[in-house]
Amino acid sequence: MPAKTISDIVALCKRRGFIFTGSEIYGGLGGAYDYGPYGVELMRNIRDAWWNAMIYSRNDIEGLDAAQISNRLMWKYSGHEAGFSDPLVECKKCGARMRQDKMADPTKCDNCGSTDITEPRAYQLMMGLSIGAMADGAINAYLRPETATTTYVNFKNVLDARPHKLPFGIAQIGKAFRNEISPRGFVFRMREFEQAEMQYFVHPDTDEKYFEMWRAARMAWWTDVLGIPAEKLRFTPHDKLAHYAKAACDIEYEFPDGFDEVEGVHNRQDFDLGSHTKAQNEFKINAHVIENKDSTVKLSYSDPQTSENFIPYVIETAMGVNRAMLAVMHNAYTEEDLGDGKSRLVLKLRPKLAPVKAAVIPLARNVPELLDTAMNIENDLRRLAIGRIELENSGNIGKNYRRHDEIGTPVCITVDHQTLEDGTVTLRLRDTMEQRRVNIADVPAAVLEIING
After folding, report:
1. Do the Cβ atoms of 419 and 437 come closer than 8 Å?
2. Cα torsion at 250, 351, 199, 208 (round to 10°)?
3. Residue 101 pLDDT more than 80?
4. How far is CA 180 from the centre of its chain?
């Protein structure tokens, strides 16, 4: 049985050390969460899976890690400073503030039902900063609300350092910050979150081709790499396109409350490079951009064969890493009835995504011979460099199995008294609970087969 509500996932995350409430001992802070020992590992494995698909499996995409604090001018010309806002209304009766576009009924307060609400006003989503000794509290920089814009302004830097012919891309994983009015859905909508975005630069004549290519590629990654069943995912085209977009769609996952966005694929035309380029009048820019008098670099591409100099179009893929983790955990969450009134909770993650790859468990606590053998097996597995390996020494084999079921460990290796007699151990598989004896020397190969299988 899958998780019925997100609350089931929240309880598991707290109990097993995936995610904690940020600043919890001081009452917490809305939209801020801390990732515990296993949340850190799961997030890292999702990042690595994305990076491998975007960078290591291809020869046409470069990586980038740009600063999180940015010059204010960057966000002026991207359009964020003037237009990155939500319509906010306030109930005059109870004082609740709500995003008008998210209200069940725009004429009634979601909290108390009153119709006495204010007219909507723009609510700035960017987090402004006052930096420097003489800033005097004035906003002169921003925490980035996305990673994409910091990619566009590095277009020429990357192209000069690693020359490419079109099409080519720049990928980036990093933190972004938004002054959300109403964070919700656990880690689904937060004020501090992580994005994995790739900007693919193409000739304007080929944009539709590559938009469709990346739609297919990203959906395949969700099913083939993360293991999400196709029936739990869908494409949803945007009903209303942003001013810069020629086409846009979301990949949505079916959460307990319905389908919601986990990744977007967008055809952004030449808006972004066109907005930040020097000498805009030298290029035929299709998108509507504001005049830029401050840029010092031409963000154009010169075709080596035709000598055509133009502003490339951008196909963007933008995934929320936190949302991906939530979807992966929800999909893997399984409650099984074992009969006789017994049940177990197991997180059936893809082995490569599991926070702990294997656990080594001596059958009895603090028995030197068993512990020494277990530690030797643990060290052999660590040398494989496949991720986190844990050694348990509590002596309660049943509780250890259940704990590792709940955090998604694919295999447990039990060292018992028979091990001391014949050099074999028990491999216990998470999904089927199958147990089989193998020689100690064969354990690393067996674990590798499970992780890579």
Report:
1. no
2. -50
3. no
4. 18
Q: What whole-number distance in Å separates Cα of residue 253 and Cα of residue 326?
A: 10
**H-helix or E-strand spanning residue 437:** strand 435-439
3-state class (DSSP) for residue 19? strand
pLDDT of 89 reads 83
Q: What pLDDT does 84 receive?
A: 56
Higher-scoring residue by pLDDT: 200, 365: 200
* Total-model pTM: 0.90
Third-level CATH fold of 6-74+145-329? BirA Bifunctional Protein; domain 2 (3.30.930)
* Fold match between domain 6-74+145-329 and domain 354-452: no
**Mean confidence (pLDDT) of the chain:** 92
pLDDT of residue 189: 87
Give domain limits for the chain: 6-74+145-329, 354-452
Q: Which of 254, 410, 256, 411 is nearest to 347 (CA)?
A: 410
pLDDT in tens, 189-219: 889 999 999 999 999 999 999 999 999 999 9
Q: Does residue 180 contact residue 84 with C-beta atoms inside 8 Å?
A: no
Torsion of CA 213, 215, 220, 225, to 10 degrees: 110
Chain-centre distance for alpha carbon 242: 23
List Cβ neighbours of 319 (8 Å cut-off, separation of 6 or more).
50, 195, 196, 197, 218, 262, 263, 264
Q: Which two tokens stand for residue 305?
A: 């064969």
Cα–Cα distance, 406 to 211 (Å, whole number): 39
Q: Name the architecture of domain 354-452.
A: 3-Layer(aba) Sandwich (3.40)
Q: Are 448 and 439 in contact (CB under 8 A)?
A: no
Sheet holding 97-99, edge to edge: 97-99, 85-90, 121-124
Q: How confident is the model at residue 160 (pLDDT cuts 50, 70, 90)?
A: very high
CA distance 49 to 45: 6
Please report, as a single letter, which amino acid is at residue 220: A
Q: Which element (helix H / strand E) includes 368? A: helix 368-382
Q: Helix and strand tally (H, E) in the chain?
A: 13, 24
